[in-house]
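Side project, low priority. Logging it here so it doesn't get lost.
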Amino acid sequence: MQHVIQHFRKDEQPFIEQVIGWQREVEDRYAPKLTDFLDPRQRFIVEAITHQSEDLHVFTDGLFENAERQRMLIAPSYFQATKEDFQIACYTINYPSKFVQIKHPDVLGALLSIGLDRSKFGDIRLAENTVQFTMATEIVDYVRANLTGIGKVKVHVEEIQSTVPLLQNEEQWIESSYTVSSMRLDVVLATVANISRQKSQNLISSGKVKVNWTVRESTSFELQEGDIISARGFGRVKIIMTEGRTKKDKIRLQIGRLEQKL
């Protein structure tokens, strides 16, 4: 197990220990363990750790197609998961769309403002006048009772019927190559966002930059292959691979860019 753990960053240690605890719980009780909603980096860690055991299977579901946030079932090898086992509810938010425009941060802010953790909610998807989001079934009644407004707008939360199609994710990654002098966060961000190093550093130190869904305020944070960087107002980029060095000793990077404002 130790050789697996050493591939992860030090600050991911608490989550790794939590995952090891889940694994032991499943092995001791011989019954499945359902997680809250996890981001792709967290799911990667769960997979890496649980794959060390042949007696465990891992299942994931987020209801939406290609959901970014999904719940996981860590289960004994005999277990076959069904949709119901994931305990995910999908709801829509009704609001006076003729008079107001609601954005992703507005919805997320309202959900968190009623006192619940982000891990209880899955993806939030918006299209034209429609808002859909997933959540753990155990908080449904609480959300229905307490989510009555977004900003100054009165809203009503309603379950999505099985006949109503779920919103598709229109994300598209565009790949390009860059050269950077180092893998520091401020250097890579300045290069791929085409901004000054100073502006890049300001964004990072003011808490507007995330790496793998975690806010990073250190400008010298070292990036690795597979990392996903999101900076407010600049969308999201993924370090697909490092491709060696140039004659001037710069690092060649293959970068995927998501053309979507965050």
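Brief comment: The chain has a mean pLDDT of 91.
Revisit when time allows.
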